[in-house]
Each structure stands twice: as C-alpha cells, then as structure tokens.
Amino acid sequence: MPDHKKSSVVSAPGKVLLAGGYIVLDRDYSGLVFGLSARINVVSHPIQPTQGVHLTEIVVESPQFDDDSWVYGYTPVGDHGGVKVTQLDPGTKPFKPNHFVETTLNYVLSYIVSLPPKQTLSAITPAKFTILADNDYYSTTATTTFTPQRRFRHLGQTISKANKTGLGSSAALVTSLTGCLLSHYLPPSVFSLSTPAGRATLHNLSQAAHCAAQGKIGSGFDVASAVYGSCIYRRFSPALLSSLPAPGTKGFGEAVVETVNSPSWDQEINKEETDLAKGLKIRMVDVTGGTATVSMVKLVNAWREKNREEADGLFAEVEEKMKVLAGALKNGDEAVIRKAMGEVRRLMKKMGEQSGAEIEPNSQTKMLDELEGLEGVVGSVVPGAGGYDAAALVIRDDEGTVGRVARFLEEYSQREGVKARLLDVLGEVEGARLESWDGERWEEL
Ligand SMILES: Nc1ncnc2c1ncn2[C@@H]1O[C@H](COP(=O)(O)OP(=O)(O)O)[C@@H](O)[C@H]1O
Ligand SMILES: C[C@@](O)(CCOP(=O)(O)OP(=O)(O)O)CC(=O)O
C-alpha cells in the first residue's frame, strides 16, 4: 500500500476568457478570465522499493485513458544543467510520449535540484503521479455512457483521440503537476502553495514549462487562471522566457532557477475586481466543431499591423467594456452585465469581420441571440479566441433557467444540425489548491 502521509494532491482549474481575447496577447491591454469548477488533480505517491521499481524512476499515469502511463528515468546534467528525464520503453504497451508531462518534469525537477543551497539529485526520490481530470474536459462517447456517475470517468480511448471541450486541459495539467511535484519534493519551508511567494513560483515555473511544451509564448492567461483563479490579467513580458537554454543542456537548471525566481516578472493579477455576485452563474456551452486559434491570431495581428490606429481604438474599447463587465459581475447588476456583454460581442464580431478571423461567426450570432432571448439568461459571449466551438453564458442561478437553456440547446441542435450542449462546469474564483487526502476520493480508478 502506498504511504498516503507522504502523498500530495494538487488541483488546478480550467479557464474561460470571458472578455479580452487577442487584446490580452499585448501587455498594453488586459483580459477578464474565470477559473472553472472542472479541475485537473494530480496525486503523488512515493514508490516503495518493494514494488521492484528501478531506483531512479518516475511514473506518471492518466488512468482515465487507454494505455496512458509514462515511465521516466532521470539523470543529472553536468555544468548546472539540472535534471533530464528520458522516457523508458514500457515494453508491454505502445510507446507514446506525452510532451506536456515530459517538459514539465524536465523544468520542475531541474528547478528543484538547482535551488540554492544547491540540492543534490538525492532530493528526487522515485514516485508515481496520477492525473485525474474532471469529466467536463472531454465530450462523452458511446463507450462511456454506462458509467455516468463516476467522478473521473474512464474515456475508453487514448488522450490523442479524446474530444476536448476546450477548457484548457494542458494549462491545468502543467500547473497541477508542477504544484504536485514542488509540494512532493520540497519542504513547506521552501515551497508552500498557501504563500504569495509559493504561488508566484508556481505561476512562473508553470508558465515557463507550458510555453516550452506548446512551442510558443501565448498570453499565458490560461496558466494564470489555473494558478490564481478569476482575475483581470495583464500578461508577463515574453522576453522573460526567450533566452532559456533547452532541457538537458549545460546551464539549464541554473537558468530555470534564475528565470523563475527573477524579480522582473511583470504580470498583473487583479483579483480584487473579479467575483461573481450571488444568484448568478457562468456556464459553458460546448459546440461540436473545431477552430485553429493560431491562424486566427495571425489574421488579427496582420490586420492590426496594417490598421494600427483603428485596431488600437477597438482594442481599447474592448478593454473598457471588459472592465465594466467585471464590475457588474461582482455587484450583480444584470442590466449592466447584459449591456457590457452585448458590447463585447459587437466589438469582437467587428474585429473578426475586419481581420477575416471568424471570431463570432454568423451561426454563433444566431445561437447567442436566441439564448439571450430565454428568461434567466443575462448575457452571452464567444469566449477566448471565439470561433465555432464554444459559448459562455451568464445566467440566473435557478433550476428553471438551467432547464430552459438545456432544452433550448437540444431543440436548437436538432433544428440547426449542430451538437450544442450545456456543460456542468461552472465559473469559479479559486485557483490551484492543495487538496486534503480524504481516502477513497482519489482512489476511484
Ligand atoms: N488528463 C490528462 N492526462 C495527461 N495529459 C494530459 C491530460 N490533459 C491534457 N494533457 C496533455 O495536454 C495536451 C493537450 O493540450 P492542448 O492540445 O494544448 O489542449 P488544451 O487546449 O485543452 O490545453 C495532451 O496532448 C496531453 O499532453
Ligand atoms: C486568442 C487568445 O487571446 C485567447 C485564446 O483563448 P482560448 O480560450 O480560445 O484558447 P485555447 O484554448 O488556447 O484555444 C490567445 C492567448 O491569449 O494566448
């Protein structure tokens, strides 16, 4: 039996960027993001030598998916290089890499062993990390309908084949795995999620690992909300991460510590001005069909380049309405929420029309307009980058409204030949947290 006294459980929420898509990529502007009640949890267990596992192994498993466990060996890298993990061939199963997991291990283990006073590799002991994602991250498939009550449903397929609902799984995963590794290997005097310094470490290290795994430096709003929950977010300067050497090369470990602990991090996380008044809920609608965020960002950037003055005017207006919306969500003024969300929609639709990116396509306009006509629906937007795949709603917190929205989406799906459904997930304000070990809760699978 694993020793639960030595286990840590860290969870991080998914995200919804209610207002501020595209503008938040530029440090001159900020965006309004909420965390979501759908969390990714990571549970650590020391591996007992009696299990016959090789002494320098770390196992990461995601038991909701077929064949998804990854075994890594770890070795020190000379010249302040930190630690490099290498995926070991499990022999019995197909060999599949998980780039997000592997990159996070390289960054976090290198950070831990390179912290001053220099820790040695003996700080890292063999352990297993289990990933448990709340059900709303993935769309249901026929194979899963028989086990609807499970908190962490088995998806009956591999991660690469699962249909994601766009709640930000990679950011929540990188953040919860980073938090769990730090909590598992470092004493509370060096890392604690409950101190502002600990949260800043979690944020900076998760951003670094997530950007490296993604192969691009986005605005980072998804990692910021995974760490801090709801906030008005102003991004960090991308230059902070531009000169890190690659994992496994000399100087990497030292550079990760220097970068993560640097006083130059300049993101702004304003939590004071974000909350959700009692009586209101943020709900997500999943619409089947995908959008490629990267190409939409390229279109908006190209348009802005050519039409700087007009674009900057529009960006400033979006930011202004975003702030009005944040204030109204906090104090519960429905009329102001409705108006501000309407303005955000109008401005984002215009941005799309001007740039050629389908930010609020006509099919979404139709669905949102009809949703806003339902009693109890206060406002709606296409969240994040927009596109065809999601909608976010602010609704009154009563059963009547939830039922009306769910019934409408069913009828609308049939009528319009799409698949739109209300997710169970709710907007929430809390970010990453240390979960208590309460026995069976983490042992369902
Ligand atoms: N539950 C999970 N278990 C293991 N890895 C996961 C899990 N969820 C996400 N990931 C990692 O994140 C990647 C998905 O990232 P990405 O395509 O950016 O999706 P998203 O838009 O949801 O962040 C997966 O390929 C996998 O590497
Ligand atoms: C365009 C953006 O400003 C917002 C994208 O928001 P989404 O919530 O659509 O993000 P993905 O889940 O990564 O597709 C890009 C950014 O801020 O990085």
Task: Describe what you observe in this structure.
- With 445 residues, the chain is of the alpha+beta class.
- It folds into 2 domains: 269 residues, Ribosomal Protein S5, domain 2 (2-Layer Sandwich), CATH 3.30.230.10; 149 residues, Alpha-Beta Plaits, CATH 3.30.70.
- 36% of the residues lie in helices and 21% in strands.
- The chain is built from 10 helices and 13 strands.
- Strand 10 and strand 11 form a beta hairpin.
- It starts with 8 loop residues before the first strand and ends in a 10-residue tail after the last strand.
- GO terms for molecular function: ATP binding; phosphomevalonate kinase activity.
Write the layout of secondary structure elements.
Blueprint lengths: L8 E11 L11 E16 L10 E5 L7 E9 L4 E7 L10 H16 L12 E7 L35 H17 L10 H19 L6 H8 L2 E4 L17 H9 L7 E3 L9 E8 L5 H14 L1 H24 L2 H22 L6 H11 L4 E5 L8 E7 L2 H18 L3 E9 L4 E3 L10
Parallel strand pairs: 3-6
Antiparallel strand pairs: 1-2, 1-13, 2-6, 2-7, 2-12, 3-4, 4-5, 7-8, 9-11, 9-12, 10-11
This protein binds adenosine-5'-diphosphate and ligand DP6.
Ligand DP6 binds next to helix 6.
